[in-house]
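Hi support team,

I submitted a single chain yesterday and got back a structure, but I'm not sure I'm reading the token output correctly. Could someone confirm the output below corresponds to the sequence I sent? I've pasted both exactly as they appear in my results page.

Thanks,
R.
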Amino acid sequence: MTSRSLRLGFVAIARPTFDMPLARDVTRQARDQLAGAGFALDGPPELVSTPDDAASAIRTLAADPPDLLVIFQATFADSTPTLALAEGIDAPLALWAVPEASTGGRLRLNSLCGINLAAHSLTRAGRRYATIYAAPGDPAALDRVRTLAQAGHVRRRLRGARVGRVGEHPAGFDTCRVDRAALKQTFGLDVVQVDLETVFEKVRVADPQAVGAVEQRLAPRLDGMADVDQTALRRTLGTYVTLRQFAAEERLAGYAVRCWPEFFTGLGCAACGSSSLLNDEMVPASCETDVNGTVTQLILQWLSGEPAFGSDVVSFDMETNSAVFWHCGKAPLSMADPDTGPRATIHSNRQLPLLMEFPLKPGRVTLARLSEATGRFRLVIGGGEVLRAPISFGGTSGVVRFDSPAGDVLDTILSEGLEHHLALTYGDHRPALEALAHMLDIPVLRL
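Hi R., thanks for writing in. Yes, this is the structure output for that exact sequence:
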């Protein structure tokens, strides 16, 4: 996610009894630095120093809340305007104070004391916030704003998002249970129940031309399509066409799909290939009706701007400090190692297509899981490196070398009773995940 896709509300607070020319100068520097970094800035260009000024800023920003509201403490002020802005604008909050040189003379801004006062009042009011103490041109300040805005952008997109839950989770898969009320309360997200047989009926009458167009588009990217059962292949592609169209009609951001056994026994194909194609197009589709897994993938893809892969962790190697991330064949094709390339294959247990088979491309990855193992949400966060390696098991797999000792990661997964699905995306997005968890008041568990 680039800064150019992020919107900041910027409000500079000042009190006229302090050095207003200096306050205007540092405010201008901050605005120029943020605009130069690519952020879209909303909010009053002048200093906010009266209740009427604050009310006007609230009216402007509340109508279309930004990804992040930056309250720039140009000079000392009491907490009244900050509290009003926090209560009137539905956006994550960052308080920014600037350092002041010791001159032996007048305290010209007293900016830090201002955000100290505001932070206390916000805490007493139960409001979440982040803080920045840096000069306007400090690169670390811009990085901090970018991280917070990225997290705020994801928070905003989760509100009102809709996830389609196709069927019910399999018996004994408590890891895939869903608490709709908790998801709505915490994220503002809705779960839309979709009948599995209704999907099957739509797949059976899917437009042959649309299915054929997908097949033609896929052929240059996927070897071996002619070698698998063609009827089953087209049923999988018909599933993709059906779910893609239904997502557009119902404004679904992603799916949690009951992929077995009914796709094999009732439709005569594997769901995995359709999930791979959806994942590749940023409409994440988790298997085994894992709604929280889909939400995790949404968070990761919105942070990275790239697809995410929901996976089992099936093998640990303590000597190489690594583990195998694997699933039947649903990783997005864009994650395939270009040295190997993806190939069409069949499900190892059910012997039906379409599945994608390839090892993951090497590179830095972020690992995450929205976990409900304790009965309340936690955000599990980790990092590692996908190593170039041959396919570990049939389907899609990657060997991930963790940042932490592999034995500690395994002990955390098992001792904390975490879900059996972890998601990954390329790049290091842990700071933004941490910021998002803080905004949502969700505890973090680090792998």
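A quick pointer for reading it: The longest strand covers residues 378-387. Let us know if anything else looks off.

Best,
Support desk
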